[in-house]
Amino acid sequence: MSQAKVEAYKNDKVNRKENLKKDKRMRGLRTAIVTCLVVALLAWAGVSLYGNITNQQKNQAITVNYTDITNYMQTLEPSVAE
């Protein structure tokens, strides 16, 4: 091995614990950020879906005019009696 590689290996060996701690901290931070983003995305989707469902339920009031049906039913009654 060249002298530069030996020196780099020694420096790495000396700082190994600090590097492992730093890597572990960064991994935990990444995991926490991704978890927060996923939770926020799911919460947003849930609120949006709930809002759409409640808006659809409010708009479902329908008025129906039964006069044509009652007139038709009245025309049928005499023929049934015969």
Summarize the structure.
The protein has helices at residues 3-14, 16-58, 67-81.
Descriptive notes:
- The chain is an all-alpha fold and 82 residues long.
- The protein has one domain (3-81).
- It has three helices and no strands.
- The chain has helices spanning 3-14, 16-58, 67-81.
- The longest helix is centred in the middle third of the chain and has 43 residues, at 16-58.
- The radius of gyration is 37 Å and the shape is rod-shaped.
- 0% of the residues are buried.
> What is the H/E string?
HHH
Instruction: State the end-to-end CA separation.
Output: 114 Å
The share of residues in helices is: over 70%
* Total DSSP helices: 3
Beta content comes to under 5%
Shape: rod-shaped
Class by helix and strand content? mainly alpha
Number of domains: 1
Radius of gyration of CA atoms, rounded to a whole number: 37 Å
**Largest sheet geometry:** none
Number of strands: 0
The unreliable regions are: none
User: What is the typical, i.e. mean, pLDDT?
Assistant: 86
